[in-house]
Amino acid sequence: MNNNLLIIGAGDYGQIAYEIAESMERFDKIDFLDDNSDLAIGKIREIEKYYANDYSFGIVAMGDPESRYMLTRTLKENCFHVPVLIHPKAHVGKYASLKMGCIVEPMAVVHSGANVGPCTLISSGAVVNHSTLIEGYCHVDIGGLVSARSVMPRFTKVNPGEVYSAMKFQIQPESKKASDQDFIREYIKMYGREPNLFDGV
Fold first, then answer.
1. Per-residue pLDDT at 152
2. Partners of 98 in the beta sheet?
3. The whole model's pTM is what?
4. Closest CA to 7 of 66, 80, 116, 96
5. Are residues 185 and 95 in the same domain?
6. Least crowded by CB within 10 Å, which of 15, 160, 161, 192?
7. Which of 82, 98, 130 is the last residue of a domain?
8. 52 and 109 co-located in one domain
9. Average pLDDT over the chain, rounded to whole?
C-alpha cells in the first residue's frame, strides 16, 4: 500500500479536491482520471489499470451525485481505499462523523453530532449543524446551512445560501456526543426503515 491518490474527475470539483488533498500533506502523488481533460493521466474506464500502477487511494470529485455513487462503487470493486478529504481551514467537530469519499472545503463547518454519509460535498462557507443526519451523495453548496436535527435523504442538494431544515428529529441528546443508535431508533420510529448511513457501497 502507498500514499498515492487518484482523483476521478478533473473539472472544477476535481481541481478543488486536488488542492484540498495537497494541503493535507498526506499523499505522495496525486493524479486525475478524466475523459475530457489534458490534466488527466488516463480515462475513467481505466480505473483498474491505474490501481495496478500504484494508486492505493481513489476518490470521485464530480458534481453529479449519481456519478459519485456509481464510480465510488467501481473504486471499491477495484480495491481502492476511499479517503475523506478535509481542508485544514475547515472545522470538523471532534464528535462529527464523515463517511468515505466526503470532501470538506475550506471555511466549511461540520459540528459535533453531525453524521455525514458517503461521498457528500461540503462547500466553502457551508454549515452542517449538530445532530444532523445526511444520508449520502449529497451536496451542501457554498454558504448553505443544514439546521440542527435535520435528516437529509441521499442525493439531496442544498443550493448556495439555502437553509435546509426538513424532516426534523425530536430527540434531545444528553451529551455533546449524539448517539448514532439514538438517531437510528428515532429514524425507524418516524420513517419505518433504517437510515442509509453506509448507503450504496
1. 92
2. 116
3. 0.84
4. 80
5. yes
6. 192
7. 82
8. no
9. 88
* Claim to verify: residue 115 and residue 54 sit in the same structural domain: no
* Residue-wise pLDDT tens digits, 81-97: 999 999 999 999 999 99
b/e per residue, 173-197, with b = 16+ CB within 10 A? beeeebeeeebeebbeeeeeeebbb
54 lies in the same domain as 119? no
- Closest Cα partner for 44 from 24, 58, 54? 58
pLDDT band at 114 (very low <50, low <70, confident <90, very high): very high
The total number of structural domains that make up the chain: 2
* Residue 166 pLDDT level (bands cut at 50, 70, 90): confident
Say which DSSP state 107 is in: T
The answer, yes or no, to whether residue 191 has pLDDT greater than 70, is no
In this structure, are residues 14 and 61 in contact, taking their beta carbons and an 8 Å threshold?
A: yes
104 shares a domain with 159: yes
